[in-house]
Amino acid sequence: MMNKGLKGIVAADTAISHIDGEIGQLIYRGYEIRSLTQKYSFEETAYLLWYGELPTEERVQILKDQMRKERALQENIRFIIDQLPPSMDMMSVIRTTISAEGGNSDYSWKPTLPQAIRLTSLVPTIIAYRKRKLEGNTFVTPRMDLDHVENYLYMLYGNLPLAAHVEALETYMILTLEHGMNASTFSARVTASTESDIVSAVTSAIGTMKGPLHGGAPSGVIDLLNEIASVGDAESVLREKLTRGEKLMGFGHRVYKTHDPRAISLKTKLLELDGKDEWLDLAMKVEETAVRLLDEIKPGRSLYTNVEFYAAAIMKAINMKAELFTPTFTASRMVGWTAHILEQSDNNTIYRPQSNYIGFLK
User: Fold this and answer.
1) How many CB atoms lie within 10 A of CB 144?
2) Catalytic pick from 43, 308, 340, 343?
3) For residues 311 and 108, what is the distance between their CA atoms, to the nearest angstrom?
4) DSSP secondary-structure letter at 245?
5) Domain 17-163+176-213+323-346 in CATH: superfamily?
6) Active-site residue 253, yes or no?
7) Which candidate in 148, 165, 179, 253 is catalytic?
8) Residue 1 has pLDDT above 60, yes or no
9) What is the domain class of 219-317 according to CATH?
């Protein structure tokens, strides 16, 4: 029997992450995601995924220093971005620029951790450089005294971000570092399995993430929040949509059959920031109303908020435009992709699945 799309097929052994959709559990290297978002930073969690253990204070400082040194864009990379047409979307810009980075002779089989760190550090700078150029604004040089997420926001907007916005976005980026054998991660591992370089594998993943069925932005949630904000009554808007049989954007998930653990972690963080941003507060009120109405109108369906719901609220709060949603997702997922590429290279077998011929002999 064929499993279309390889659904349900185990393609690799991994120690990086585990998802249990039935009980709503996401684990990074043995740690439940909620404990990581409550206690650790982006860099500490990235260290865990790359090295397989949580770092000491000394080791995380070393990693931070490495990432800061790798943020700068070389002149040839800036030149390439400058030549790209303004109509080119940001995901294509990232894909093209990272591919050009692969022209560096330092990249060869086998992939290394310093390579993973450099590629992860570069992506936010690529995004910020392109964004500001299209706006006609001066490029904001990375600051060596800022951590990864705070520096990303600083480069995007040219000023130090609010602490509440940094905390919210950092939580989101930790939650999207890694998520099992999804389409883009599989693409990366397939490319790495041919003993191609890490840049080629990451470029494959970026191209896969670009597809709307995988890396689609939570713009539908933004539209919903905007509509509710303009009307001023969450219950009337939501009840009308449900009565018409419309799907509420940001509720339900293909994998998680109960609460999405990433949404719970984001909500926990936003509760800590209660009253510090109106859009985050609005999202909390909308969720409470929507879950109550879903239980009333669609009993037994167990439809809860997914990570996109609160991600949209965060993006709205930090004034991030929709075209930057998937690129920001990509900036965090670089950690997971590179961790899988490194794992693949340590015990490599080339992927070679079979296909079922449905044509004819003529």
Assistant:
1) 12
2) 308
3) 36
4) T
5) Citrate Synthase, domain 1 (1.10.580.10)
6) yes
7) 253
8) no
9) mainly alpha
The residues pairing with 28 across neighbouring beta strands, listed in sequence order, are 17, 31
Amino acid in the structure at residue 102 = G
Look at the block and give the residue holding tokens 């299209």.
134
Do residues 54 and 71 make contact, with C-beta atoms less than 8 angstroms apart?
A: no
Average pLDDT, the chain: 89
Residue that wins the pLDDT comparison between 8 and 292: 292
Is 165 catalytic? The answer is no
* Contact yes or no for 155/125 (Cβ under 8 A): yes
Q: Which two tokens stand for residue 93?
A: 């810009």
Q: Give pLDDT tens digits for 208-235.
A: 999 877 766 566 788 888 899 888 888 8
pLDDT in tens, 155-205: 999 999 999 899 989 999 999 999 999 999 999 999 999 999 999 999 999
Q: Is the pLDDT of residue 53 over 80?
A: yes
Spatial contact of 267 and 216, defined as CB atoms under 8 Å apart: no
In the chain, the percentage of residues whose pLDDT exceeds 70 is: 92
